[in-house]
Design a protein that fits this description.
33% of the residues lie in helices and 18% in strands. It has two domains: 1-30 and 78-120 and 171-251, Rossmann fold (3-Layer(aba) Sandwich); 31-75 and 121-164, SIR2/SIRT2 'Small Domain' (2-Layer Sandwich). The chain is built from nine helices and nine strands. Helix 7 runs parallel beside helix 8. By secondary structure, it is an alpha/beta fold. The protein has helices spanning 3-11, 48-53, 55-73, 80-90, 105-108, 137-141, 173-185, 204-210, 237-244, and strands at residues 16-20, 94-99, 116-118, 121-128, 134-136, 160-164, 188-192, 214-219, 231-234. The model has no long low-confidence stretch (mean pLDDT 92). The strands form two sheets. Strands 3-2-1-7-8-9 form a six-stranded parallel β-sheet, sandwiched between helices. It has a three-stranded antiparallel β-sheet with strand order 5-4-6. Strand 4 (121-128) and strand 5 (134-136) form a beta hairpin.
């Protein structure tokens, strides 16, 4: 299928679900965790049980996350991909947006928060593991100066943690339910910028396909689900939307 045919198909669709991964944010200057320069090329991951049970590991984790937060402050803004998905909402076509990203750029681009499912949480909040109080990230990171101790909750003295899903931590139940419901309800399911190698998130395009959705995969590299897709685009995310958007002017 050529891009023009895909554009015609997507113009006539209404219940569209986008599923985004790190590839949509790399063009905003945020490195993929697993790519050169990413967090996991410089640090050994801290598993959730170690974070909870070992103060030294908590400190190591906070130092790692503080570095990643500094990345977000270096003039990192939404790019054409984020704004293009927002345009689908403006046209009344966006049923929902499932993202593996924790950078919050979809919301900054203007996608309604009730449309967004953040499967892996957000780096822009800190949560208490005891009472679930949420803090703005800057409020907590400002305390992490010098030889710091891991921060604790002001209300209950519980352990604070960035509101993201760590290795070995259970996926958020409500977010998973919402993502599954969106996948089952999608008329068109568009994967953007993810290798589809991390489970259980990678199962959502399959769920959508089994529920009757047209599935498209837009990614720089091949994915394990390319044969499942009805349309594949191999290339940069920005290039895809630069070519697609003019074809949607009649949507």
């Amino acid at each position: 299928m050529k891009l023009q045919e895909f554009a015609s198909k997507i113009r006539s669709s209404r219940n569209i679900v986008f599923f985004t991964g790190a590839g949509i944010s790399t063009e905003s200057g945020i490195p993929d965790f697993r790519s050169p320069g990413g967090i996991w090329t410089k640090y050994t991951p801290v598993y959730f049980d170690d974070f909870v049970n070992n103060e030294a590991e908590r400190i190591r984790y906070w130092k790692m996350k503080k570095e990643s937060l500094e990345t977000y402050k270096k003039n990192v803004n939404p790019n054409l991909g984020h704004y293009s998905i927002k345009a689908f909402e403006d046209r009344g076509q966006l049923l929902g947006l499932i993202t593996q990203n924790v950078d919050g750029l979809h919301a900054i681009a203007g996608v309604s928060k009730d449309k967004i499912v953040e499967l892996h949480g957000t780096d822009r909040k800190v949560v208490c593991l005891e009472c679930s109080r949420l803090y703005p990230c800057d409020e907590i990171y400002s305390r992490l100066v010098g030889d710091f101790k891991p921060p604790l909750c002001d209300d209950c003295n519980g352990i604070l943690k960035p509101a993201t899903v760590s290795f070995g931590q259970a996926m958020p139940v409500e977010a998973m339910k919402r993502a599954q419901a969106l996948s089952q309800s999608a008329e068109m399911f568009v994967v953007v910028g993810t290798s589809l190698q991390v489970q259980p998130a990678a199962s959502f395009p399959v769920i959508a396909k089994q529920s009757g959705a047209f599935v498209a995969i837009v990614n720089r590299d091949a994915t394990p689900l390319d044969d499942v897709a009805d349309y594949n685009f191999k290339g940069e995310i920005g290039d895809f939307f630069r070519q697609l958007n003019p074809l949607l002017s009649d949507a």
